[in-house]
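Data deposition worksheet. Section B asks for the primary sequence of the deposited chain exactly as it was used as input, without tags or linkers unless they were present during the calculation. Section C holds the resulting structure in token form. Section D is free text for depositor observations; keep each observation to a single sentence. Incomplete worksheets are returned to the depositor.
Section A, Depositor: J.P.
Section B:
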Amino acid sequence: MALAYLGSKKPNTAAIMSSPPQLILTQDDLKKIAAYKAVEFVESGMVLGLGTGSTAKHATDRIGELLRQGKLSNIIGIPTSTKTHEQALSLGIPLSDLDTHPVLDLAIDGADEVDPDMNLVKGRGGSLLREKMIEGCCKKFVVIVDESKLVDYVGGSGLAMPVEIVPFCWKFTAEKLQSLFEEAGCVAKLRVLSGSGEPYVTDNGNFIVDLYFKKDIGDLRAAGDAILRLAGVVEHGMFIDMATTLIVAGELGVTVRNK
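Section C:
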């Protein structure tokens, strides 16, 4: 079909065709954006909780970069996992522990799920116990996610809610956990290593049972208390009312929400 043009000149079709393509951000790009925004909360002289996972890794990298540039100084990091410990050492970030610094100024970490009340699911990377110990004693806990981690309720993604358990009679503990949430259609699975099929072992020498829910489990505090009352359970991956700031990176930009 012929095109009609108003005026004496036709449009510059070459210019139209050569316009630059729209930038498409990957999920990792969004994670990096959120992480860099979180590091803006870091000030010289702070004791920091250093999170674990693909999003938190970007934050730790950025802190190391700012230390090398001299834009930050006198930072002390407390890592939430062996992996983060090794990363921080490679970046030259001075490290310590909770015995020496029982109160932290700030912790930055990612999350596997975030519900509308800023309750979290964490631990799909296997570090939930140390994360909860460290992030539970900080003055400010900044959570960084991309928008895919936002859910209507805990377990709403259909992915795992981890529970760290002792290896002794793990099947017994897993069955108890599954029966605890029978009404929510819970399925409990021991986390295993891909390939070998051997149980995944945490930095603390424990196993992880992943719980999968088909329905909302309801009162999170009641659910968490019920889990912890089971002998053999070490800790669960629900971080209830712990986050003070949530940073979400999406295609339309970054949003910051404070409690």
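Section D:
The longest strand covers residues 141-146.
The domain at 29-151+241-251 is CATH 3.40.50.1360 (Rossmann fold).
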